[in-house]
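ugh finaly. both done.
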Amino acid sequence: MEPDRAQGFGCVKMKDQTMFHISTRHRKVLMGFPRRAFLVLTFVIWVEPPVLGRAEAEEATVASVTPITRQVLQLNRPVGRIFAGTSEALLAFDYELSEFQLIDAATGAIADTQKTEGAPLNLTTYYVGQNKWEFLYTQKNDDPSRKRFSLGILMSKKRNYFTSINVLDNIPDTFLSPSAKYIFGISKGGMDIITWDRSFVTNNRVYNIGGLRDRIDKFAKLYPYDLIVFRDSNYMLAITPHEHMASLLNVRDGYPEDTVYVEELSVGDPAHYSSFSPDMALGGAGTVVIANGEAEVLTVMSVIPGNIPQIDRPLQISLRSLSALTTGNRKVLVAANHSLSVILVGTVGSNELAVFRKVGGALEELKPVELNFPIIDIAVLPRSLRSSDNEIFVFLGDDKRTLQIEPDIAALIEPRPIEAHDPAEQAFPSNQVDRDSVARLQRALTTLGFSVGVIDGMPGRVTTAAVRAFQFKGGLKVTGVLDQETREALNNAVSQLTPADRSYVLSP
């Protein structure tokens, strides 16, 4: 990093090798430099252009960069992992050089690098505003003189360069696999950091909360493996796979406020468990998608916001159509867009992707996708505040040099055609019960707002419960059976849907 890239925050090396740290977001000001350094700062501020509003800044950035298109890029050096970077750049880690690389998603060029003293265990991206990004990560240190693990914050602006890095040795020695995330709105400075032990081989219930330096240990009444942020200053969604449980963890006192039992969540090998939370860069959407390679099940969990949030009923669907699992390859990868209209599940070393989507209160499997090469990692670049489904998906090939860029992931998926249907065509003309008719029933109930859990053509207790709910709402006799009266009511309801929704219900 160059000195003239200082933007008035972070930890920046000056010409006399002294350091300063200014963090307005954490209300800390730590300085240690002679007076002549003020001359450098004065010069930087003098040449800084006028500060634009958020919308103006985003528009100016979009107008000045190369458009990101669907393409395959070749890197000059192999990278071991890829992470969500900025909305225009990918973050990668080179294990041989022990450095982060900021890679332009439009060209594949390395825009900037940042050396580290260890390899990252995990990393989460956050959008600060005005094209500024923070990458919060934990790392395992190579230097034996330091503590085993450290907490790091790497900062970047636009797609062009890193602005600062701050690494602190404040992770408890008892942690075996530490992870960290921001909690929005707890401290007066804006955000605090929660650090916990994300390990399958320990029952460490201690987590700590605080700023960069002042941290407080807390004791959870449960052992969380995953903690999911959802724009709430008091709660996080805690996932405990070995207990088949998800809870709303009150981060202030460690108590679970709401708990649900989730089947097929337990896993023995952490490599067979993969989770993805959409919109983490914007504070979290309160949703997590979990792929379990051992149980061969995809689970989607969401939080219902409110003064006292609640966990919505988990949705699950089988992953048995993923052929790589049948060969014993259970190292799963999962990613999704923020609306969950595209959920991708793959395995390390395979080019096959199973495709799912959330439709109302149900999960539906779509036609699988085959990439041009086997992959070992997936990253989803965060969307901007004003966008819809424009997250950029990036796939890292097994050669560690090839990147496939997909700026419109929906274009990769074979869409369900919208067919014209006779207005007089009935959705349920008879009491025939086969897999196609059950799937049509599930699509109809889902479109009408009744959750069936999964659209798979298999009748079950959730589909029956949805039929009962439809009957109750319509003033019909509640039996859970698709009798003549219920079929007529469903036919009438489907006939009043939009053409697109009606086509979705009626099409095979």
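ok and the 2nd:
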Amino acid sequence: MKTKLLLTLTLLIGFTIVKAQTNWTVYNTSNSLISSNSVFGVVIDSINNIWIGTSTTKNLDKFVGSECTNYSNNQIVGVQGGNLVIDLKGNKWVAGDGLVVFTGLKFTNYDGSISGIPNNSIYSIAIDKKNNKWIGTRDQGIVKFNDTIWTKYTTSNSGIPDNHIYSIAINKNGDIWMGTYGSGVVKFDGKTWTTYSAYNTVLPSNTVWDVKFDPNGNLWCGTSNGVAKFDGINWTVYNSYKTGLSGVNVNCFEFSKNGDTWIGTDGYGLVKFDGTNWSVYNTSNSGLPNNKIWSLAFDKNQQKLCIATLGGGLALLNFSNPTAYNEINSTDNISFYPNPATDKITINSSVTNYSDVTLNFYDLTSRLISSKHLLNKFTNIDDLNNGVYLVEIKTKEWSKTQRLIIRR
């Protein structure tokens, strides 16, 4: 298990210093029993265990603390983007190339030959308050399953405008909201189908990878061109330069109790929006193991944000004080160069008194390797071995962490 101690977030304009201590824990095939490093779905059960679905495996994995248990069955299918949910009875539903339910004792497979699912390519699944399963397929619309009857809605028998259903969210009224491949967002209230697209709203793209409601009832839409939020009347688009989300595929959302919105992207990393400021975690400035994020879930106490990455395994962003980030902005964008380096680095900063600056060099297990107090802007690193380090640049008022590669 690798834990990386980090004390900063990077803003897209300048950066943000995080006073509340955070650290990263990463589970991969090298340090745990996780089935695969490609994790597509993550959910939390009623007793705070972490369940994950992975790609191209026959396993459903459960984490109790740091202990991983594999539940293996030949009926388990490769999971796709976030297709892992827990129903009202505690059963785990795994969707991808088919549909499997795990009761904790046995697996049941629902494939096209024995069920009402029109094909074995499933993009999404959601559970309503009556425990009905709503299943979004690749090209055959959406299917409702009440554990007995399968009801199919396609473009040929309903008002649904698109048969490719990437994501599903259900609001407090029981309305079914869907993100589609080419028709934007669709709402179904049980009788009427309503389409919100780039043609009749300001939705930035008709390809909608994820839809999810925040605690205030706002619908967040992750598109192929940033984010849109819908409060039921007005749309707000977040894809300008200052957000960094312009042209970015947004795969998933999660929401904290203090109002922060966490956004998982396809290659840009993890983004946090507090209503005013935009902050980014990526592989260059944090312990995030991969910038492709497919699913997010807070644990019950919101002490851990569970992050499903494509190729980096399961990452946990741990908060020692999750409800009080206590962030401050710095106008001094301090950094160092060159990177990679050989025997010396140079500090690039407006700092005038370098004696106030300390550089702490950590390895990727958070072990302190060296601490150097600056006399000027140049620092010798010829005493450090080749490798990757997390360098904490620290003063009395703030600290910032950057990754450094030493290569000779």
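summary for the 2nd one i guess: The first strand starts at residue 2 and ends at 11.
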